[in-house]
Specification:
It is built from nine helices and eleven strands. The protein is of the alpha+beta class. The protein folds into two domains: about 130 residues, Jelly Rolls; about 100 residues, Arc Repressor Mutant, subunit A (Orthogonal Bundle), CATH 1.10.10.60. Strands 2-9-4-7-10 form a five-stranded antiparallel beta sheet, covered by helices on one side. Helix 1 packs antiparallel against helix 2 and helix 3 crosses helix 4. The N and C termini lie far apart (about 45 Å). About 35% of the residues are buried.
Length: about 250
């Protein structure tokens, strides 16, 4: 097993990542908030993948091995917090809603000179207050452990538009439908339809970050129509896919 890079202090900084660029798996002794000022951010751990557009941020707890990846041109903002500073009491990676005010606080704090001036300390205090009020908004693809479940998940990762029901996918994976249904609940914490919707939203966000047209995204991700896709996307994120790139870029 390769060595995992260990950086005791999680950095607070801003940097750019090109489309498809990633940061090798690593861990910190501090907590970290990872935010995409533009583009779409994916963070992968042993437990699965979390994805966040510009209206979301990802909380990574201290000690968690994680690997961020860019979809689209990513303006990455990293905010480190000491291990004893956990405003939401979270001990697992979590996607958080980012209000317009919280967005501006993250941008300002990660771009400002890293000193302990009274102004910066006040900015940090307000930022933490906003974090405490930030609801959790899971866009998470848990990682399956059972090889039969993994086989089904892999089939749909390769083709999220695959329309086959679980019974047909079970045959392709050499497993029983009831067994797979139980595994989805036990290992992934959701039903098969819920997981497939999360998978399709995950791929939709990636495609939208690459400027793929909404109708094409709907087709490639398996929705029956663009209007059906728009409805599911709006219920998940609070805005339509047609306005996605404007929102995640802050324009």
């Amino acid at each position: 097993m390769p060595d995992i890079r260990h950086t005791p202090q999680a950095p607070t900084t801003a940097r750019a990542l090109a489309p498809g660029e990633s940061i090798d798996a690593h861990r910190h002794d501090d907590h970290q908030i990872i935010y995409a000022g533009s583009g779409v951010l994916a963070v992968t751990t042993d437990a699965g993948t979390w994805i966040a557009p510009g209206t979301r941020a990802i909380w990574v707890p201290a000690g968690c091995v994680h690997a961020p990846r860019a979809h689209g041109h990513l303006a990455l903002h990293l905010l480190g917090l000491p291990a004893d500073t956990n405003p939401l009491g979270l001990d697992a990676p979590t996607v958080l809603a980012v209000s317009p005010l919280l967005r501006e606080l993250i941008l300002a704090y990660t771009r400002a000179p890293h000193d302990d001036t009274p102004e910066r300390l006040r900015l940090r205090a307000v930022l933490l207050d906003q974090l405490r009020a930030s609801p959790q908004q899971p866009v998470h693809l848990p990682a399956p452990a059972d090889p039969r479940l993994a086989a089904v998940c892999d089939l749909l990762h390769h083709d999220p538009a695959d329309p086959r029901p679980l019974a047909a996918l079970a045959v392709a994976a050499g497993a029983g439908e009831r067994t797979l249904s139980r595994l989805f609940g036990r290992e992934l914490g959701m039903t098969f339809p819920q997981w497939r919707t999360q998978l399709r939203l995950y791929h939709a966000l990636r495609m939208l970050a690459d400027d793929v047209p909404v109708t094409t995204v709907a087709h490639r991700c398996g929705w029956a129509s663009a209007s059906a896709f728009i409805d599911v996307f709006h219920r998940a994120f609070g805005y339509t896919p047609g306005t996605h790139n404007r929102r995640v870029s802050g324009s």
